Amino acid sequence: MALSKNRIKYIHSLEQKKNRKADKVFLAEGPKLVGDLLGHFPCQFLLATSEWLSRNRPLSTVTDATEVSEEELSRASLLKTPQQVLAVFRQPDEETDISVISHSLCLALDDVQDPGNLGTIVRLADWFGIEHIFCSPNTVDIYNPKTVQATMEVSHASDCIILPYPSSSAH
């Protein structure tokens, strides 16, 4: 099945936070990242080369997997060098629970603007056993494609949960 222009347009629209937030999805690219996220987040759809699909069967958790050529993947990908597979996953529904502050190691981030820096912070927080990260409204979106790429598999592998700052009315 050929990759439609509408699907490519949709994938590119996920560069914008408003579109990711409206659909509650995020984009992941590359064999390691997509492979690590499968089974941990519901996969809305997956595009992959025949080579990747042949090495990664069965995909029981994926209901919409499409085999694409390298050229089609290149047109859909947000990366300069596409890496065999990309997938759109559903964002988890996370509730902000202020009580976690009293019984777990937490990190609060304010105004982190660079997606790569946020990804690095998340990886380090995971390594140090930090269970919850609270991000101010001015912090870059954790589901920004560059942030997702920088965190690699951390955002699902640990108990590291990214939450918005609790509102002042929660005190």
Describe the structure.
- This protein has 171 residues and is of the alpha/beta class.
- Helices cover 37% and strands 19% of the residues.
- It contains 9 helices and 7 strands, in the order ααβαβαβαβαβαβααβ.
- The protein has helices at residues 5-13, 17-23, 31-37, 50-55, 70-76, 100-103, 115-127, 145-151, 154-157, and strands at residues 25-29, 43-48, 65-67, 85-90, 106-109, 132-135, 161-164.
- The strands form 2 sheets. The chain has a 4-stranded mixed sheet with strand order 1-4-2-3. It has a 3-stranded parallel sheet with strand order 5-6-7, with no helix packed on it.
- Helix 7 packs parallel to helix 8 (145-151).
- The chain is elongated.
- The model is unreliable at 155-159 (pLDDT under 50).
Roughly how many Å apart are the termini?
Answer: 53 Å
Look at the helices and sheets and give the structural class.
alpha/beta
What strand line-up does the widest sheet have? 1-4-2-3
Unreliable stretches: 155-159
- SSE arrangement, N to C: HHEHEHEHEHEHEHHE
How many beta-strand runs?
A: 7
Mean pLDDT equals 84
- Portion of residues in helices? 25-40%
Number of helices: 9
Computed CA radius of gyration, to the nearest angstrom: 17 Å
What is the general shape?
Answer: elongated
